[in-house]
Fold these 2 entries.
Entry 1:
Amino acid sequence: MPPLDILVHVRNAEGEPLAVRAALALSQRRAGYLYGLYVAPLGAVAFSTPETVVFQATEADHLYRDALARRAWWQSVLTASAAQGEWLVAQGEPVEALCHAARWCDVIVAERPTLNPDAPLGWGTVSRTVFGAGVPVLVVPETAQIRTLGESVLIAWNHSREAMRAVRGALPLLSAATRIVVLDGTPQEDRLVMRHQPRLDLAAWLTRRGVNAEFVSFTPKGEAGAAILAQARERRADLIVMGAWGHSRIAELVLGGATRTLFQTSDLPLLVAH
C-alpha cells in the first residue's frame, strides 16, 4: 500500500501538540507522510483606517515569515519519530486552508478544544472542515490520552452515506487494526421514500478487503452518542469511526444527536466523515 498522506492542523508550532502526537501514532500503525499545516493570521481590514491597514499588512507578513521559519521544528519532530513529511504555511482563514490542502491528502488530523455543552456546534473550525474537506477528519479532543491509535477500533454503523464514507476513509487503518468492533445500529430513515432498496452487507464488504470485524447488535435505550462512547470505553477502543451529521447542523444544534454528543464529550479520537 502507498503511504497515507496525513494533513495535520498545527495550531501551536512548538513542543509536541496533541494533533501532532495523534498523527505520529497514526503513522506508526500505517506508514504515513505527514504534512504539517500552520495557518498564519491575516488581520481584518473591514473597519481599519489606511494607516492601520499598512501596519496590519506588515505585521501579517512578519507572522507569515516566522511561521515559515518553523520548518526546522517540524523536521525535528518528524526525525525524532523516524517519520517523513513536509511543512506547509498558509495565511488567512484556517478552514479554507485546511480544505485546500486536503485536496492531496487522505485524512486530516485536528485537535478540538473542549466546548461548553451549551455552545453552538457545527460552525467551529473542526466542524466546518468536516463539511468542506471531502476527506475524513480525525478529531482529537484536547482531553484525549494518545497511547495507541487504530489498534482497537469501534465503528458506529447506521447504514448511512456518512457512516460508509467514514468506513471507506478508515480502511487503511482498519487493515492494520488488531481488533475491530462494529456497533450495527438501526438504519437511518429513508428520506427518498424508496421501497425494497438493497442494503450493504458490511461484514462481507470488509472481509473482501481483508478486514475481520466483530459485529454487535446496537439498539441504545438512551442517547445514541453517549451509548456509543460507553461501548467504546467498555471495549477499550482507542478510535471511534462514524459518520458525522446524518441530520443537518441546525437539527443537531436544536435537537441534539450522536455527533453533537460525541464532539462535546468524547475523550477518544473520532474519525468522522460527512
Entry 2:
Amino acid sequence: MGDSVGEFEQLILFAVVRLEASATAVTIRQEIETRTSRTISSGALYTALDRLEARGFVQSRLGEPTAARGGKRKRLYAIEPAGARALTRSYDALRKMANGMTARLQALLP
C-alpha cells in the first residue's frame, strides 16, 4: 500500500478536504454519494476511514456533544499532510494520464 491511495480512498480524501471542519462519516458519505451518484455502505466507509487514519492520512477527533444527537459527540475527520501528499500525487498522475483523452473516450462510446 505505502503512500498510494485507491479510488475509494481518493473519494474519501477529496470529501474530507471539501467538507473541512464539518467532515464526519455521515457528511463524507453524503458528499460522495451526491457527487458520484454512487451508493456507499457505512461499513465500507468506516473501514476505509480507520485504514486511512492508521496510515496517518487522516486524523479524527471527537467534537462537542450536541442536543440534536442526544448529547453524543460527532467524530470529525481532517486530512493530514501525508494524506494531502498522497492525494496530490494520485490526482496529478490521473490528470496527466487523462489529459487529452476526452475526445478519444467519447469516440469509443456507442
